[in-house]
């Protein structure tokens, strides 16, 4: 039976080719290759590369592993635009950033698995709690023994001095750190941590009362002859500061000192405002830290070159405005790592590395 007998007509289906394409078939093949038809992302790649993510809105490919571990490459940052090239995906899978990210992810999974094995067992949880309680009791006993020895030595000395500073714990509770310095009967000079006291208020009167109370209870307040702290106005101000209030209750004239290290740090901070070289050196140290800060591959490269050159394995550290000792460590580590840093920056494939190489060699 044919549909033609019911009035249907046979029509030729167009092949979509123009007269020019029919006369020149090669032109048609070239047009297909250059058309957007082939410039598409293949969904099947997602199964072959589990870490691959395709952003259909922006037409870009991303690597979820490199993004998670904060790697610095196209697949982790702005995304790869050559979405039709599987070779680009394969090339990324072999690059050092991606292999580093895979290693980090494997280590993370193994650690998570180990934690689950330990903590999912009720027996293990009970055992861990018991062990932690025992360790806590041992530490408390050790601390109590050391504290008793320190107070006993203080009760036997003729005089002592204190150094104080304020600190804040993770729940933002203010504390007062007290250190003591004294000479024992055997003529040995000692300086050590004494105690950490909570502060309800941070004014001069409250701090003074805390200091007076603890030494008054031990019966040794009359032996206090020296006091040192930073330059905070409530501690070493002009009138109603902590030092002034302590002086009124001490048996002997109180020797008051402003922390020497802190004063030196303040002097250096003031000096850098006028010395141009200081500003340039500070900026250079910060740029070197920034170069390594978010790149595991750069940090690993530095370690490998330090090891190759038989240099100490040193970390590039950050500068902190209020932590003056951190400045020394940061600058010293860079100075000790100059040969390795020059090798890295000279071979760098980015402008940042080349800029740092020029600055270090100029």
TrEMBL record:
This is C17orf113 probable zinc finger domain-containing protein. InterPro entries: RNaseH-like_sf, Znf_C17orf113. Residues 14-33 are annotated as: Disordered. It comes from Rhizophagus clarus. Pfam families: zf-C17orf113. Residues 49-108 form the C17orf113 probable zinc finger domain. SUPFAM superfamilies: Ribonuclease H-like.
